[in-house]
Amino acid sequence: MGTSVYVAHVGIISPIGNNLAENLQAFEEHRSGVDRAQFLKTRHDAEFPLAEVKFTNEELANKYDLDIGLSRTILLSYAAAAEALAPFDRKQINEFRTGFISASTVGGMDKTESFFEEYINDSQSGDLKLVMHHDCGKPTDYVCNKLGLKGFVTTISTACSSSANAIMLGARMIKSGQLDIVVAGGVDALTRFTLNGFNTLMIVDREQSRPLDQTRVGLNLGEGAAYVVLMSEHAAKVFAPNILCKISGYCNTNDSFHQTALSDDGKGPFLAMQGALQMSGLLPSDISYINMHGTGTQNNDQAEGKAVEKIFHPNYPKLSSTKSFTGHTLGASGAIEAVFSSMAINKGLIFPNFTFNQPIDGLHIKPETTFQKNVSVNHVLSNSFGFGGNCTSLIFSKI
Amino acid sequence: MTKPEFTVTQYCRIRENTISKNGNALFNNPNEPFSRFADNAYRFLNMAYPKFHKMDNLSKLGLLASDIMLNNNNLWNKYTPFEVGVVLSNQNSSLDTDIKYYEQVKKGVASPAIFVYSLPNIVIGEICIRNGIKGENSFFISDHFNASQQVQYVNNLLKSNVVKACICGWVELMGNTYYAFLYLVEKSGDTKGSPFNIQTIEDLFNNKIE
Amino acid sequence: MTELKENLKKQIVEQLNLKDLNPADIGDDMPLFVEGLGLDSIDALELIVLLQQHYGIKLAKAEDGPIVFKSVNTMAEYIMANKK
Question: What subunits touch chain C, counting only 3 or more CB pairs under 8 A?
């Protein structure tokens, strides 16, 4: 049935930490990354808290020796991917069939909206260099080159499930024998475009969000990047004696109900979770922890909650939404949560909600409220559901 | 000659205000901007689907192409909703709509109905909603249509039985410059068509409309 | 009030891209959501934009939507009560 797919290493930069150690420390200290906007200049900054990576573009560029004029998307992507690949000799890696699969929803939008401000007032003005990296594909190509990877490269853009789908594709290409090593994940940077847009959908919380809680009113927008280094059995033997975990199941479906809302009974999420379980050969009772998509919107948490109940009731595994700490990092969220899921397995961790008071009416789901260590975590289910009905579930397992 | 494993059973091309199905010209509406061409095509096809008018141009383009391609195909006689997937790609993502949204914002009006379409995979969502498709779906961004990547990916899905049929192709639109090339791949049974391989897809993508 | 309702119907058709629909076909009391016109959650948000753009009224809570936007009648009543 093909080789196993291992997670050899990870990299992450998020609103709660600029590398893996800092992210885990934030959970230890129960510190959320949601705060008043400090870095993104927007007329909404008094209205909505944001979950920002705590670096200016200049600081990122200096730290990673990159051009200060680059899109924040590229800076964040490189920061995370570089951490993921840090232990591995690039020349040795390139002797294998490699892949770089990245995902983003905004691409270089942060630069484009600066260009557009001037352009719309005067079509002769505006620096066209700013829009060079607008396409979602350009940050991928740039970062891939900078990392020195010379193999397969592609970009996925499927809203909030984008980077989960990137990881799924990477796993698939290894399992089918097409590639040996894949760096897969995604990135999104906060932009005024995103903030304005989500505001018109009226699904943003003016306070710290409360995923999976009856009193929730919406999400907090976030930004960040994360990548996992996936390896075939053969490559893992060569490179990585300290493998973190393996990917044992994945599934993607379309909810086919509405452009931005999930069906009431969460059919798409249900099929995605069920499909991932079927592929992994696991029973619901084998799952130790679910990292919920849990955005904090009325619709998602209700639909996802219903789907989880349908599969797991009455024996629920521990579960939580880490978006209560990181905000909803959109295209990066699948990969950020894949990193947390991998560490849950590797270090025996259970991540909590930042807050939780009241279960959703009609549902029995109660997220964890404390960070737990030294727990036996054998299998983790991670959900990512995007606009356009795109639903993905990944399962990470102990080796 | 061995029977091909998978078959391209239908395809549709829409460009330069001309629609063709399986190489046969169906509809032509020259000298109109895309939005008027799309409305005229909608009426010509008797689509009777009011949600069409709310969509952005990229989704209209994708939905027209998929409707034409799937017409009379009896997908649900052969497959369950979970067995049909959608894999699309383009160069400019949803940039055409992103710009329209931004122009509205600058005028002081932020339209949620436009913002909803500021993601390229919403066109997949619309195709799935219209047809009740629930299988694996993904959207790729690349400078040019990459037949090799798409064929390998979809081949893998079909071989592993993740899906048994897949709507694939390229749906690209910026202003009034656009090209939709959609094709349906099925696990061969008694289906007529072309063998599903990189050469077939490249040839179909590159042919000029008759 | 009649003129307001006639204008509202035209604005609804335009704002929501209901191209196949004649404004005169929208009954004053016709349910706008679920049945009747069959509008959805995004349409509801567009109606909030419509209220703001054409009547200067800001609907602060999305939850009030189902009551205010039940029909052209309820919308007109709300506008008369809140218009600045």
Answer: A, B
